Amino acid sequence: MAGSTRAKVGVFDSGIGGLNVLCECLKAAHGVTFYYFGDNCNAPYGSKGKEEIGILVERGLHILARRRIDVAVLACNTASAVCLESMRRKFPFPIVGMEPAISPAAKKFRRILVLCTPRTAESERLRRLIARHPAAEIEVFAPKDLAWAIEKNLLEKEPLLLEDHLPRGGYDAVVLGCTHYSFFRDEIAAFYGAEVFDGGEGTAARVLALLRIGRSNHSQPLVTRSTQTFEKCKNQTKNRVIFVGPCKKMNETIFISNKRSI
Ligand code: DGL
Q1: Residue 127: count of CB within 10 angstroms of its CB
Q2: What is the pLDDT of residue 138?
Q3: Would residue 76 show up in a list of annotated catalytic residues for this protein?
Q4: What domains appear along the chain, each with residue ranges and CATH number?
Q5: Cβ(200) – ligand 1 distance below 6 Å
Q6: Distance between CA atoms of 16 and 145, rounded to whole angstroms?
Q7: CA distance 68 to 56
Q8: Of these residues, 25, 83, 116, 178, which one is catalytic?
Q9: 149 C-alpha to center of ligand 1: Å?
């Protein structure tokens, strides 16, 4: 796998949120084969029980493992918070997880709002992460349906009003602890008048480090992080990513299913 352009990476999310992380990886990982599994038949995960999430994630990783991947990415904060460690024990390849970008936010700002799913909010992993930053004032808010509303908005054009889902408040920084929220990064920044952080770039950097690929072109990001991000992600992934998810929407509505045999 080392430095190899033949490496295979499997990216998993409950739905479309992981595309944000995938597009970060695509910025540098040319020649790597990416498989994307979006389990949006079973999304949202954010309010499901831990056991059910564990079963679904394991099933998704098994489907990706059949493609003989070298590295898997849990591009889902909820899955990472609930079962990253147990999945690492079950599979032979390295698994990179998501971590809400509280550390970079706390380096610069004091009043921080973390937005994540209910399951991530109650996780021990998040509690420990927050405890590492005693100087920051960190509030966590877990909108019950925002990830699903984003999925519906982007796939089925259902209306989405952020103020129906988010609390008002004065914050210096907002940390997006759910990969779905990153599609609305610019809108959330404007909503709070605050700087927004997400874990996508950090996760992509860890994946590239495992593949021993250096990040090259910082000046021309492929992803601009607005609602147009979704369209850009679609274009960006076309012919470069093999979608293995069971959900028809992933193959028919969003992506032309890759013709290569999988
Ligand atoms: N995208 C997922 C995350 O990062 C979860 C969304 C959901 O299925 O609730 O937490």
Answers
A1: 12
A2: 97
A3: yes
A4: 8-98+200-257 (3.40.50.1860), 102-197 (3.40.50.1860)
A5: no
A6: 15
A7: 19
A8: 178
A9: 11
